Amino acid sequence: MTTPFSGRQAPGLPRLPTPPSGWPIGSYDTYEEAQRAVDYLADNDFAVQDVTIVGVDLMLVERVIGRLSWGKVLGTGALSGAWFGLFVGLLLGMFASPEGMSYSPVLVGLIAGVFFGAVFAALSYASTRGRRDFSSSSQLVAGRYDVLCQPRNAEQGRNLLAKLAMGSSGAS
């Protein structure tokens, strides 16, 4: 995997987006079930580096959290700005005075953060002109999750996952 600090990539992973390869050894309704299957393979000393979990039939699901009002927008903007202003003020306060911590930059940072946070939130909300008076959370989900394996170990993987399915269906 590429890390943001090293810029290096793990061996065997493609640099560009590529379709997955391998034979299907299991198909699951949820990502949690697919993850459990791969964990089961790992627990049974299977070569999991040959395994890929593929989300099929992707959907963007946007769940509406609530209605937006000017009060909520300004309050959230002020709170967000306060955190940022407090952070900047603490940094300035620690290094502003050679005698030690100075609290006036903290107070100025906090007040400026609240003000600018509220102003920018108000400008952003006003620019929508009432076309988006709700807040939401988006998530990318799949209709099903296939577990693929490279052909050299696919049969062994299929057999192990069949044992997992037999164990979980008998426990219900």
Automatic annotation (TrEMBL):
TM annotation in the entry: 73-96, 102-126
Record-annotated General stress protein 17M-like domain positions: 25-98
Membrane keyword on record: yes
Positions of region (Disordered): 1-21
Keywords: Membrane, Transmembrane, Transmembrane helix
Entry-linked InterPro entries: GSP17M-like_dom (IPR025889)
Domain of life: Bacteria
Signal peptide range: none
The protein, known as: General stress protein 17M-like domain-containing protein
Biological source species: Saccharomonospora amisosensis
